[in-house]
Every structure is written in C-alpha cells, then in structure tokens.
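[agent] plan:
  1. take the single chain provided in the ticket
  2. run structure prediction with default settings
  3. attach structure tokens to the ticket
  4. add a short note for the reviewer (M.T.)
[agent] executing step 1
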Amino acid sequence: MMTARRDRFVHWQLGWMLATVLVLVVLDALSLELFFLCSLIGLLVVTELTTPVNVAPAWRARLPWLIAIGLIAFAVLVVRRVLHIVPSEVMPV
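[agent] step 2 finished; step 3 output follows
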C-alpha cells in the first residue's frame, strides 16, 4: 500500500514527465534523449522538493540508486554525442 507522501511523489514525477512530453511535442523537439534528460532533471527537482525534514521513509533510501543510474545513463549519452560530433581524425584508433 502506498503512503500519501510516496503517492504524492509519484504523481509529481508523472506530472513532470507528462508536461515534458507536451512541451517537447509543442516545440517539435521530441526525442528519447531530450525526454530522458528532462525526466532526470524532474526526478532531481521532485526528489529535492518532497524531501521530508525530520524523518526519511524507507522507500526514499532507494532514490539515490535510481538517481545514480540516471546520471550514469546521462554520462553515456554525453559521451556518445561527443564521439559523434568529434571528427574521426582527432580520435586515436
């Protein structure tokens, strides 16, 4: 059974992701990479805004792992994009 705080966290995150999709569609810039990046930013913002002051519920202990996985995936996307942009003459083989 979901607690009220966890339920609120999930609703805020889903709302952020839905708003991201709508904005990217309106701007005609919808891509998986941009959606992932905006969703990761949303996860960080929602996590920070819903952090309890006194007591940390047990379910929040898993959020740093999810954030770490998201940041690693973001680093992979950045490296792929840099390798795509950099000319092949610059990269040693």
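[agent] step 4 note for reviewer: The chain has one domain: 4-85.
[agent] ticket updated
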